[in-house]
Amino acid sequence: MNRADHTGPTRLDLDRGTAVLLVKVGRYPLAHGPVGAVRSLGRAGVPVYAMVEDRLTPTALSRYLTRAFVRPTTGRERADRLLAVVREVGREIGGRCIALPTDDEAAVLLAEHADELSPYFVLPPVPAGLPRRLANKGAMHAICEEHGVPAPVTVAPGDHGELLAAAKTCGYPMVLKNLEPFTRLSRPVVQHSTIVRDEQELLAACPPNGRLSVLAQEYLAPERSEDWITHLCCGPGGEPLAVFTGQKLRSYPPSGGFTTRAVSLPNPELAGLAVRLCRALGYSGIADLDWRLDLRDGRYKLLDFNPRTGAQFRLFETADGVDVVRALHLSLTGRPVPRGPQLHRFFGVGQLDVLSAAVTYWQDRRPLPDLKPRRSTERAWLCRDDPAPAAVMALRFGGQGTRRVAGYAGQRMTKGLALGGSK
To answer: Choosing a second label site near 153 at 20 to 30 A (CA), which of 22, 113, 132, 146?
Structure first.
């Protein structure tokens, strides 16, 4: 049997009397991270509720979901309005349950209003202002400098003059990222992490009359680097309860998007870096950290610290059946977290991984990677015991993914023709 299907019962004794609510802010109905959380906890017998955009999202149709609450948000709402929505859902559930954020904005909202939400929810004791600082790319870089954590050369420009100057500091190509939580949803400068290769592309991405809430960062090219990830669950004071490391193999968009293919690999050096940082900050809860190993100096450099579950968290599981979501539930219900070794396995995001591989092959003329399925692969969507999310994803959003890839490939082709014509 493929372990990824999990048709057998979990070996962990989770408290089935304590439910979990997945809290989200913003519209991302295609996300596979919430589906993974529903399956992980639901298979263990824990009641799981979720805030969704509508009743036909993949998360809403999982057989392991107890109930979907249709509460669409954009991230442009006032904090008091978002807080009222979460409280209303908590009242409808009845009894205190664990609130699990699935995006940075939800993590910030829950942490900053933990006292007001305490009648309805159990939350990890994270310092109230810490998730906002970590989700802010500029503040996160300052944290790296303060605690001696390596990071790429990074600039948070205050105006367009400083943005142009940042190019001299970071050099081209350069990576642009939206700077702050909430602002990235209400007034995004770029749609995702974006590579600009010259001043013309920089000005096109950030026109002078636009609002500037952007981070400029040194680009570490794939031929000189490796992408790594750490997923943690920390108890009070940053004490590690579960720590996992792995390598990102592909992403979409390539060289700057979310993970479409990864492998679980123990990396004590990287795990130690992540644990030391979380302890120094007193971070409590689930965290997803993105790193890039700079092969020029052999150092792991922190790109992002996401103060919530990562979309690919189901890549990681111990021999005892612990992942970061189950570890948090065990900890917040006063149960011990077994400390078994992490399993070696792969993670794949279906057709988007195939498309990512194809775009990378076309763009960089790299050899086409091995796309054969492995028995040890945890699939983001497809599994035998919960087929509906994969089916609705294919029906409702399949064309969207294809259009995005076609658009991306078209942009690359246009740039290539323009460069060829200029020679």
So the answer is: 132
